[in-house]
Design goal:
mainly alpha, 4 helices
Length: about 110
C-alpha cells in the first residue's frame, strides 16, 4: 500500500519535472537574448532535474540517497556554470537586448 502511494507521488514529481523542462524549452524559444535564455533554461532545468530525481528516488527507495547527492551537486554547479558563461559572453562582447534596463557590469561591477 505505501509503496503504491510512493509510486504515485514519484510519478507526480516526474510529471512536474517534465513541465519544468517544457517551460525551459519555451523560454529558450521566446526570450530575446542570450542572457534571458540562459536564465530561463538554467532555472527550469535545475528545478526539472530536482523534481525528476526526487520522483525517481520515491519510486526506487534504494536509490534515494544517491539521487539526493546528485541533486546537491546539480544545485551547486548549475547556477555557477550559468553565471560563468554569462560573464564570459558579456566580456566577449555579446550585447544585451536593446530593451534591457539594467546592466550591472556596465555600471562598474565587472572587476
Amino acid at each position: 500500500m505505501i509503496e503504491e502511494l510512493l509510486d504515485y507521488i514519484g510519478m507526480f514529481f516526474v510529471l512536474i519535472g517534465s513541465l519544468f523542462f517544457l517551460f525551459g524549452t519555451i523560454g529558450l524559444v521566446r526570450m530575446p537574448d542570450l542572457y534571458n535564455r540562459m536564465q530561463a533554461s538554467t532555472k527550469t532545468t535545475t528545478l526539472g532535474v530536482l523534481s525528476f530525481l526526487v520522483g525517481i528516488g520515491l519510486m526506487e527507495l534504494s536509490w534515494l540517497i544517491k539521487l539526493l547527492i546528485i541533486a546537491f551537486f546539480v544545485v551547486l554547479t548549475a547556477p555557477i556554470g550559468a553565471s560563468a558563461l554569462a560573464r564570459a559572453s558579456y566580456k566577449h562582447g555579446i550585447k544585451l537586448w536593446k530593451k534591457s534596463v539594467v546592466d550591472k557590469y556596465k555600471e562598474g561591477k565587472n572587476d
